[in-house]
C-alpha cells in the first residue's frame, strides 16, 4: 500500500496544476466546434427507475464569442438525429436499434427531419464564468425556445493548432419531448429529456 501511495504522489507531482478559468487574453471572433473533443448526450427515464443515455455522434456548432462582453456572443448548432450511439451490448442489435431510433417516425424521424438545430437569441451572464443561452430549438419540425445553463471552462493554446485559442464549455438543459410532438412509449420513456454537452471550440483561422 505504501508503494501505491508513493507512486500516486509522484504522479501528482508530474501532472500540471489545473489552471483556473480565465477570459484574459482570449480572442474574440468566430470559433468552430473542435469535434474530437465534443460530447453531446440525451437522457430519459426508463421504466421510471433508471436513466437511459444516448450519444449524438455527428453534430457541429459555430460560435461568435465576445470575450469582453460574453453576453454579446452567438451560438448555432446542427445535429444529425440519425447518428447515435446507444452502447447496446449486442453489436448486431445495436446497429438495428440505432437505425430504428434514428429513422423511425416514432422517434427521431430523420428521414423527414434530417437536422435538429439550435440558434441562440439571447445570452445572459449570471456569474464570472456562468450564464444562460436561450435560443430556438427545432426538432421534428417544431420550433420552441429552450434555455441552456452554460459554464465556461477556460482557454488553452495547443501547439498543434498553431497557438490558436481553444475554449471549453459545458451546457445542460431539460425539455419535454411531447412539446415537439414526440409521445411514443409514454409511461416507459419519460417525457422529460436531459440534454448535456461538454466540449471545446477552436478559434477560426483568419
Any overview of this molecule?
The longest helix has 13 residues. The protein has an eight-stranded antiparallel β-barrel. The N terminus is likely disordered. It has 206 residues and is mostly beta strands. It has one domain: Lipocalin. Helices cover 13% and strands 49% of the residues. Strand 7 and strand 8 form a beta hairpin. The chain is globular, with a radius of gyration of 20 Å.
Key attributes of the depicted protein:
206 residues; mainly beta; Lipocalin; eight-stranded antiparallel beta barrel; 10 strands; 13% helix
Spatial ordering of strands, largest sheet: 1-3-4-6-7-8-9-10
Q: Can you tell me the CATH superfamily?
A: Lipid/polyisoprenoid-binding, YceI-like
Taking all residues together, what is the mean pLDDT?
Answer: 92
How widely separated are the two ends? 54 Å
In the predicted model, the low-confidence regions spanning at least 5 consecutive residues are: 1-16
Overall radius of gyration: 20 Å
User: Overall 3D geometry?
Assistant: globular
At CATH level 3, the topology is Lipocalin
Order of helices and strands: HEEEEEHEEEEE
